[in-house]
Amino acid sequence: MSQSNSANPPRAALAALLLGVTLTVGTTLPGAAAGPYPDGATGYDISWPQCGGAYPPGGSGMAIVGINGGHPFSTNPCLASEWSWAKGSPNPPSAYLNTNWDPASPQGLQGPCTQPTVDCRAYNYGVSAAAYGINAAHAANVSPAVWWLDVETGDSWFNINGAYDQARDATVIQGMIDVMHANQLTVGIYSTAYQFDKLMGTSYNPQVPLWVPDFNDSNPVGYCLPAKSFGGGEIWQVQYTGAQFDQDYSCPARHGYYLVAGDGGIFPFGDATGYGSTGNRHLNKPVVGIGSVPSGGGYWLVAADGGIFPFGPGAAGFGSTGNRHLNQPVVGMAPAPDGHGYWLVAADGGIVPFGPSAHGYGSTGNIRLNQPIVAMAPTPSGHGYWLVAADGGIFPFGDATGYGSTGNLHLYRPIVGMAATADGHGYWLVSSDGGIFPFGDAPGYGSAGSLALDSPVVGMARTMSGQGYWLVTQRGHIIPFGDAVAQAYGSWYPRGLSRPVLGMAPSL
Questions:
Q1: 300 and 308 Cβ atoms separated by less than 8 Å
Q2: N or C: which end of the chain has fewer CB within 10 A?
């Protein structure tokens, strides 16, 4: 999408549109691929057309309510009563906003984008539409777990002789997404690949979750497939035709993991999709880490010189240090929770952020360390991170809290990795002998410290639920604990490897 730099205002400017409103944020999603609903849950979505009539049966596994009265800058007249119905679901309800683009609307004349251009009017229109929806929800005590943007060709999108202004349409939607992200809200898009591509063009990839309609089939499972996706996103739920009301189905969460070797060879297990690798390339430096795209659809590899290798439709390359002089080699990376950026971390704890959502909150680059940094983990908000050294010393930055460390303990083997809990109020450290050290609200589900291992442990990853974790050894052996036992989808061990495994990442 082509737009001016002024159409990318800072978060502070976006949040300023909502001054005077205290947002009640819904459920925080820890990068879950299937959103807040259990695998296979079903339910209903309703909005203003149901005002004055019967509502669907209460207590279903999913409930979604329309905020608007059919178009932006309007309010569903029975929002409060419909939200009361939605709260009867055992799972957190969601909501959706109508979208369109009217270049003549005064709503595009004021906002964070100040240049007198049509791009600015489109961006401000989207920002204002999202802010209106959030404020209307707040007034009705509505706090959605997910905010869906309803993108349909049947709405009033500006066109000339049937041709949509795709660049500006995409700018409107990006403005709405930016407001949601600025207020730490989970946002996705309701549409079909045909409608989205017709309105926005095929080059616009916001990489947010998807809710897709299936109007011709009462069996929605087939619409959970990646082939039905668009815009670099992953399908979280499917709408299908019910007897009286629109029904919805929650796509099964992704369960799987990737192993990565020093040559960038990728080994996917479970439902993890292999999008490519550097296993057959000549690299200046070996690969040292992997990060999964939080919304699914790809991963990044990082080499010791900070070279970034993105794979999959969801993995955008935001930059690298491959052509810079570094004081110490890069030892790992961490994606921003919304997928719009990542951090690289060097052995001295130097942090290099890339992308609009990855900011530098501090580093240990100018601190004398007893042991080198070996790994990092971001907080759920993306506004902080932890660094961990080989002796288990913890260095929190931004909104990360230090819950404890092994820096003052005698360890039999060095720390090689860490993983944060879903709520960010704890973390696990793992040593090369498979010893697990939980801190904060991180439960200890078991360790491999007393097991005879085929090779040293080199990393760990927690399961989607946070109720378990996998450890991986140099030879690609997976050691599961907690609910990871039921999600042990395979190991590379005892097969041979060209280069040792150096880490793993869950498929998200």
A1: yes
A2: N
**Both tokens assigned to 380:** 């759920």
Phi, psi of 138 (to 5 degrees): -60, -40
Alpha helices in 87-237 (DSSP H): 118-139, 166-182, 193-200
What whole-number distance in Å separates Cα of residue 329 and Cα of residue 312?
26
What is the residue type of 382?
G
pLDDT, tens digit, for every residue of 82-97?
999 999 999 999 999 9
- Give the phi and the psi of residue 126 in degrees, each rounded to 5: -65, -45
Instruction: Judge if the upstream peptide bond of residue 494 is cis by omega within 30 degrees of 0.
Output: yes
Indicate the pairing of strand 42-46 with strand 62-66: parallel
Q: What is the Cα–Cα distance from 435 to 413, expressed in whole angstroms?
A: 8
- Tell me the mean pLDDT in the region 48-69: 95
Q: How far, in whole angstroms, is CA 106 from its chain's centroid?
A: 33
The CA angle 502-503-508, to the nearest 5 degrees, is: 155
Q: Helices 166-182 and 193-200, interaxial angle, to 10°?
A: 110
Q: How far apart are CA 302 and CA 300, in angstroms?
A: 7
Edge to edge, the sheet with strand 394-398 lists 373-378, 384-389, 394-398
DSSP state of 252: P
Verify cis geometry, omega within 30 degrees of 0, for the bond prior to 220. Answer: no
* 65 DSSP β-pair partners: 46, 95
Q: Chain centroid to CA 377: how far?
A: 14
Question: At 43, which amino acid appears?
Answer: G
The H or E element spanning position 504 is strand 501-506
The packing angle between helices 118-139 and 166-182, to 10°, is 40
Q: Which residue has the tokens 């993105």?
A: 310
pLDDT in tens, 130-187: 999 999 999 999 999 999 999 999 888 988 777 899 999 999 999 999 999 888 788 9
Question: How many residues can be counted in the chain?
Answer: 508
Helix (H, G, I), strand (E, B) or coil at 344: strand
The tens digit of pLDDT for each residue in 60-71 reads: 999 999 999 999
